[in-house]
Amino acid sequence: MCFVTYNNMLFNSVLLIDDEDQLRGLLKRIISLEGFPVKEAKTLKSGMAVLEKEAIDIILCDVKLPDGNGIDFTREVKKRFPFIEIILLTAFGNIADGVQSMRNGAFDYITKGNDNEKIIPLLNRALEKIQLQKRVAQLEERVGKQYSFDNILGQSTVIKNAITLAKKVAPTDATVLLLGETGSGKEVFAQAIHNGSKRANKPFIALNCSAFSKELLESEIFGHKAGAFTSAVKDKKGLMEEADTGTLFLDEIGEMHVDLQSKLLRVLETSEFIKVGDIKPTSVNVRIIAATNRDLQKEVQEGKFREDLFYRLNVFTIMLPALRDRKEDISLLATSFIKQFAQRSNKRIDGMSTAFAEYLNQHDWKGNIRELKNVIERAIILAEDSLLNVNDLSVELRTISYSNRAGLSFDLATAEKIHITHVLHYAKGNKSEAARLLNIGLTTLYRKIEEYGITQE
User: Fold this and answer.
1) Could you tell me which CATH class the domain 325-452 is placed in?
2) Given Cys at both, which of 183, 230, 401, 430 links 359, Cβ 3.0 to 4.6 Å?
3) Of 425, 334, 415, the residue nearest 385 (C-alpha)
4) In CATH, which superfamily holds the domain spanning 4-141?
């Protein structure tokens, strides 16, 4: 593959398509003198053959060629190679052809001979556009990967089952209801479902319904007309309209006021809503993904949630497991967070000690993945060694986890082993200090370490 760099950007070959040998040779010399590699073709057919074999960024193409028209060729190329920019050359320019060539995706349309001095500046501008498009595409690809199902970590059966269900519903337009405790990853799942749908390149907008009063939430979701209330000085689009053709994720849907529930129900049934202060409906094409940590069926029975809305939302329900119900995933998630926060903090952290991992596995994680993430971030900040150790955990977490661990077994030996391990880590491995704190002899401590198979990391 032939390429050069331009302003630190990789640049592939220019393809010249023209059946006039003399003009093609002249253009090749002009372009080559600027350091751009040049490929040549006499016909559209041979030009297409070059495109299929070579990495081409820009095409300079005659409008009239023996086997076709460069304007039509432009449309075909842009369909197959959207990042290639095409500059059309014509001996007799006219406005109609120029307009049609731009509609078909040409970068520019110039006259042969008279506009030769424009070619190099045009190439440079086309190159800048290409590089910008490629950077945007790379960014979109990275964002897509970040929010894909592949980015949901876990080997436990419960999380795999949830992912399988989400993958099945993603390509459809079905409304999805995500159930699970706070911090269990409901928004991550919603984004992955959106990313796996045909709406992936359209807006994904998330709103926490518990963050607003009834009046503010109505305006946020549905928008308002100027004059609808005192501070409404101009029209405002709501998130429902902003998410048109895409996905609207309504987190904590159970917190939504009953009056607003009826407006949401209308959207789900008719794809229409009325803005605050408006008299005519607004139509939208929005996929709704809702989430809650509440028992909506119980809320329905207590009259706090509309039954008809519940059944409209409950088309496809996915239950997300609590972290304590997927213990085998804790180390995997922790390792990922360690890598993430170590890089962000510019620290070298190679992992966590066995004792640190034990504490994580024994903790209840009432805050689920969000709590684990916060614990790891704090530990990274405190860490002084290349491995996270127990002393990098908060005293509260160590106390709670220690109590949980002691409660797992009632025999004295297990409790003694746990306590000795805890004190050894507190003493940072100093056995003399640990023996002093335990109020036992150093020989006794060594014997118990061997007896219980206590290891230190």
Assistant:
1) mainly alpha
2) 401
3) 425
4) Response regulator (3.40.50.2300)
Q: Tell me the Ramachandran region of residue 42: left when phi exceeds 0, alpha when psi lies from -120 to 50, beta otherwise.
A: alpha
CA dist 313 and 232 (Å) reads 31
pLDDT band at 400 (very low <50, low <70, confident <90, very high): low
Two structure tokens written together for 352: 């966590």
Q: What is the mean pLDDT of the chain?
A: 86
Residue 95 buriedness (CB in 10 A; 0-12 / 13-18 / 19+): exposed
| SS3 state of residue 301 | helix
Where do the structural domains in the chain lie, given as residue ranges?
A: 4-141, 150-321, 325-452
Residues 85-111 have a mean pLDDT of: 84
Please tell me the number of Cα atoms within 13 Å of 345 on its side-chain side: 18
Domains 150-321 and 325-452 share a fold: no
User: DSSP letter at 214?
Assistant: H
Region 300-313: mean pLDDT is: 94
Its pTM surpasses 0.85: no
Pairing of strands 68-69, 247-251: unpaired
Contact 356, 176 (CB under 8 A): no
How far, in Å, CA of 438 to CA of 235, rounded?
Answer: 71
Q: What are the backbone dihedrals phi and psi of residue 7, each rounded to the nearest 5 degrees, phi first?
A: 50, 45
At 243, list the tokens: 């998410």
At 437, the pLDDT band (50, 70, 90 cuts) reads confident
Residue 123: count other Cβ atoms within 10 Å of its Cβ: 23
In sequence order, the β-bridge partners of residue 17 are 41, 61
Q: Are 240 and 286 in contact (CB under 8 A)?
A: yes
370 Cβ neighbours under 8 A, 6+ residues apart:
182, 183
Beta-carbon count within 10 A of 448 CB: 17
Mean pLDDT value of segment 165-187 = 95
Each residue of 185-217: b (16+ CB within 10 Å) or e?
A: bbbbbbbbbbbbbebbebebbbbebeebeeeeb
Which H/E stretch holds residue 1?
none
Q: What is the pLDDT of residue 309?
A: 95
Given this model, what pLDDT does residue 32 score?
87
